[in-house]
User: Fold this.
Amino acid sequence: MALLSGGLSFLVTIATIGCIYGLLTLGLNVHYGYTGLLNFGHVAFFAAGAYTSAIVTMPPPSTVTNASYEIWFNLPMPFGFPVSLAAAAVVGGLLAFLIGLTSVRLGTHYLAIATFALAGVFSDVLVNEAWLTNGSFGMNSVPKPARAMLSADAWQLAYLGFAVATLAGTYLVLTRLMDAPFGRLLKGVRESEPAAKTLGKDANVVKLKSFVIGGMIAGLAGGIYAHYLGSVVTAQFVPHVTFTVWAAMLLGGAASNTGAVAGAFLVVAFEESTRFITTLYNWIQSVLPEVLSGILPALFGPLPNNPSFIPSMRFVVIGILFVLVVRYRPEGLFGDPAEIDALGEED
Amino acid sequence: MTGNSPTEDSPAGNGTDDSQDLLEVDGIVKSFGGLVAVDGVSFGVEEASITGLIGPNGAGKSTLFNCIGGVYQPDDGEIRLDGEPIQGRSPTEISRRGLGRTFQTPETFRGMTVRENMAFAAKNQTGERALGALLRPGTVREEEAAVQERVDETLDFLELDHLADDYASGLSGGQRKLLELGRVLMLDPEIILLDEPVAGVNPSLTDDLLARLRELNDRGRTILFIEHDMDVVMENCDRVVVMHNGQTLASGPPEIVQEDERVVEAYLGGYD
Assistant:
């Protein structure tokens, strides 16, 4: 069977990454959209899940080059796969519990700083505790479940199917939760903690629960990510991931699960499309009449040939998206303007 | 130390037995840095009464409310609800013990509908626990139906029913006060504390709101409210507590308190 042709293969990759970011965004939406928690350390829960899946499924260090990790469980595929994902979700939730326990009672902006800092600390731990994480080399032999049974293309498609199913399942569970009185409880705490408390609800416990649920979903996303790429490296888990997820949630619309998923796919597609900028540039150059061909190089000069141009464009794209959404459509694509109106305001 | 010692020497002293009061405030002191906002206030609120708490601006009324509701920890003194000390406990726990309160500036859930605001306050909801919501949909549905029925009844009673599906952010100031009261009613508390329930409410709505309060009182609810408008207090309260400079100046039936010289001097503007 031939490899999926260029364009199709690219779409399958984007869709799979889109599902993973969809999960991350659903998790952050529980935190911010429903509970009003300014979590700027979301990538830490994602990383915790990815590393957990890697640690429970990596083969013995003796079979891997550059291995310095001392803990591995080598769970056999495919049956170890669900165990690995469950462990990823549990560890993501556990990390959220620990961070939440110390910081969830902080007011909104202080929580943002605390979570951002704690995510930074966690990232340093991942780099430095090489006995557990293999340090900056990363864990590069994470098994891809059922890969041996399928061709490369079939596996790509099957894994996409699995990612879609997981995303859909999580979406359904969350929708049920948020339509139930539980969702109302989260929203009330988001709107006014003093009122929630005087109405007999324990706001700190509610916030902690929300933090753990969102952390579990991000951890699950990490597990799916680890088994998809087959490799987990600290450089993947940078604050940029957190901000991409924020952009996705705001674009889709805070407090909307549909918006979270739609926003994630749009932002991932948007980001990935930046890699075509060079192609687009060359194409325009090739179709421009001879007399005009000097214009683009004069305007953009050496930029597109600079190796850091494309990666840095991603930051620009996300930044612009952030500003445009917040300025012109604060409720995003699927958010409710009346609900978002008061979100994030104090007093 | 008895709850009404500062009032015994006043002509308005009520002389009722403290042990029968639903809420007892006993020598409460609260200071912020060098400012003593509440300085040994004592009074009792009889069960099934409407009690008005009055006093000039800065007398410490709202601070006292926040001490009773658990927002502030009093520096000294005791607050008893149904004989049980509650001072220093969290607002959550005090609410669960049967004390419902509103705020001077309404704390409605602006990004939620009136209906959601009301239903939020219902107690013991299985669906408020994540696992309960996921695993016991039948129970959650039944409970929710009962909650929504009570929401409808209460909104009817407060004449807010036509706004049930509006967002609270779109309500007027007076409607927000009513919504806050409605939320407290959903709690079904033993005693309701209202901080200026009619301030900023237009006159026709004020009369409505006061009529609702009296109706609630007729149904046996105990109400303690802060109010500036003397007429409102005199016409609607069974008992009045007057605070001045963080202390109880007088307490008793409105017609007696009204005659108290110190009250007239401190609060009603002295002799012209």
